[in-house]
Amino acid sequence: RSTRVPVGEDQVLHLELAQDIAQHFNKKYGEFFPVPKAILSTTKKIKSLRDPSAKMSKSDPQKLATVNIADSPDEIVLKFRKAVTDFTSEVTYDPAARPGVSNLVSIHAAVTGLSIKEVLHQATGLDTAHYKMVVAESVIQKFSPIRNEIKKLQEDKSHLIKVLEDGAEKAKELAAPI
């Protein structure tokens, strides 16, 4: 019964299919399903750290291409240190001409909530090597509370089982009338 669904740009077609199905079903059988609307973030796509022409993906075989929420700070620093950029040291945003550096700027903006312009202003005077570490630190700060909570939850197996059982019960109650 979702009315708003946060999706990445690459998932919009799937949501449009769900909208079409809901509309056709509702037209034939009466108002039953809400027609979900997409919630898109300002950051459309995060690109691979190793190939900025491709989307960052969990299935990428290159381990250094993707940052995972559960990565340790050392792993995150390594991935950003090895991120593909170019030989120009100034930090600028030009996705066509400088896709690697522009990807770092996009990631930095996404994790800090700042605009591209604000991120570029903060990066004034930094070369790309130093900027990579600024971005890595911003990602580490953003992911740290999540990573800590995951670790805490993984250590308390009985709590996880209880949450799953409670969730299953609530789902059954909500689904039964439908």
State the distance separating the first and last CA atoms.
11 Å
What is the CATH homology-level superfamily of one domain? Tyrosyl-Transfer RNA Synthetase
As for the CATH topology of one domain, it is: Tyrosyl-Transfer RNA Synthetase
CATH class of one domain: Mainly Alpha
Average pLDDT number: 93
Q: Give the biggest beta sheet.
A: 2 strands, parallel
Count all strands and give the number. Answer: 2
Helix content: 40-55%
Strand arrangement, major sheet: 1-2
Anisotropy-based shape: globular
Oligomer: single chain
Compute the number of helices: 6
As residue ranges, the low-confidence spans are none
Give the strand content: under 5%
Rg result: 21 Å
Family: Belongs to the class-I aminoacyl-tRNA synthetase family.
Protein name: tryptophan--tRNA ligase
Subcellular location: Mitochondrion
GO cellular component, one term: mitochondrial matrix
Describe this structure in words.
The structure is a single chain. The protein is mainly alpha-helical. The chain has a domain at 73-147: Tyrosyl-Transfer RNA Synthetase, CATH 1.10.240.10. The chain is 53% helix and 3% strand. The protein has a two-stranded parallel sheet with strand order 1-2. Strand 1, helix 1 (12-29) and strand 2 (37-39) form a beta-alpha-beta unit. Helix 3 (99-112) crosses helix 4.
